[in-house]
Structures are given as C-alpha cells and as structure tokens.
Design goal:
Length: about 230
C-alpha cells in the first residue's frame, strides 16, 4: 500500500492520544514516550507499505490503518513492556482464558484499555462514534459495504454479511475474514489481537447501540458474530 495522505493523516490525528495513553501501560516518563512514538512512526510507515493496496471491493481501510498504528507502537515498546505468550497458542479467545496465554508488566485487559482510551480519547473519533447505528442511511451503507466485501481478495481487508432486524431495533454483522487478525499474524504478534477485538465494545459507548459477541476469528471461532441492539432511552 502506498504511504499517502490518508495514512499520514491517520497517524497525525491519533499520535498525541496514543502517546498520552502510554501511561496505561505503566510508561510515564515523557521522554520515553516521545522516543517510542518516534520509533513507532517509522514502523507504521513500514507496516502500511507491506499491506496490499486496497481496491474497489476492499473495506474498512481506517480499521487496518489504526491497527497498523497500534502494532507499530507495540513493536516499539521496550522489550520488558511486551507481552510474552506462555505457551504455543494459535488462537486467543476474547475471555479471561486469554489472560493465561500471555504474561508481562500488564494484562491483556490493560493493553485493550490502552487502545480504547487512545481511540476514544480523540476528539475526531468521539464525533464519528456519535452517529446513529440504526438510521436507514447507516443500514443502506452497511448492506452495500457487506455485499462489496464478499468480492474482496485482499487478506488485509474484511469479508462480512449484514443482517438487519425486522423491527429496526437490532442487526448482526457476521465476519468470516478479519484484516487485523491477518496483519497481526503476519507481524508475528497474534497474541495482541484480543486487545483490538475488545474495542468493538468501546466503539459503541458513544453511539445508540449495545454491542455483544460470542466469539471471534482470533479466538478460534468460525465467525466474529457481532450483535447490535438499540439502547433503551
């Protein structure tokens, strides 16, 4: 993928919030934070360049770019601030069991908190997340995007189907392929994927939806079964 305006813009928009929230990972020295982010920027460029270019059927470009930034920062942490898998695992479930698969100075939950607070603490992201998930326009967009995604052959993109509820109060998005899970495996850090999976819950905090899920592709399930119910007023 060519490193262009969108890629650079994503980094510039979220750089400050990521740097600030490094404290969640018990990194409080401001000079160390700046050094991490300086190193991470070059890694971010390298990661985006290894991603196959997005074409007309590829979806969720912003998601793969935010995942690239997260991975770049994680890979730029001092060695002692990286999680260590305690056994050979090919899946990392979105449950407490995942905590037993890694060890480090912080937990998987804290790593997830770092990503969520970095994203949701950003003004631009807050405004974006306030959109309605239950408008006719949003459902039309999701239906069109899901249908398009089925034709994607890019492993860094997503494939999913959209299932609107008849009463307008519920919908499902079922993902059969996840670009983030593929990216993290390619980077050799699949164990941090659940930290990003958790953000699906965090994204709905400012919207009119309640998010639930039973399993993820990263956790060994056949699908990421994402369920959205309209919040009760």
């Amino acid at each position: 993928m060519k490193y262009g305006i969108i890629q650079h813009g994503m980094w510039m928009i979220f750089r400050s919030s990521f740097q600030k929230q490094l404290s969640v990972l018990h990194i409080t020295d401001e000079k160390v934070k700046k050094d991490i982010m300086k190193k991470a920027y070059q890694k971010y460029r390298d990661i985006t360049l290894m991603i196959e270019p997005f074409g007309g059927n590829d979806v969720l470009l912003v998601n793969i770019l935010s995942a690239s930034a997260f991975a770049a920062i994680y890979l730029s942490l001092p060695a002692e601030y990286r999680l260590t898998p305690v056994k050979n695992a090919d899946a990392f479930p979105e449950t407490e069991e995942c905590e037993l698969l890694v060890s480090g100075k912080y937990t998987m939950k804290e790593l997830g908190d770092f990503y969520e607070s970095s994203m949701n603490g950003n003004f631009v992201m807050k405004q974006y997340l306030k959109r309605s998930c239950f408008s006719k326009r949003y459902w039309r967009e999701q239906k069109k995007q899901a249908e398009k995604s089925q034709k994607s052959t890019n492993p860094y993109s997503w494939k999913y189907s959209f299932h609107p509820g008849k009463n307008g109060q519920h919908f499902d998005a079922l993902f059969s392929h996840c670009g983030i899970w593929h990216l993290m495996q390619k980077l050799g850090i699949p164990e941090i994927t659940p930290a990003m999976c958790r953000y699906d819950y965090g994204m709905t905090k400012y919207s009119d939806a309640v998010f639930t899920r039973k399993g993820t592709l990263a956790g060994g399930a056949e699908l990421c079964d994402c369920h959205y119910d309209k919040k009760k007023q």
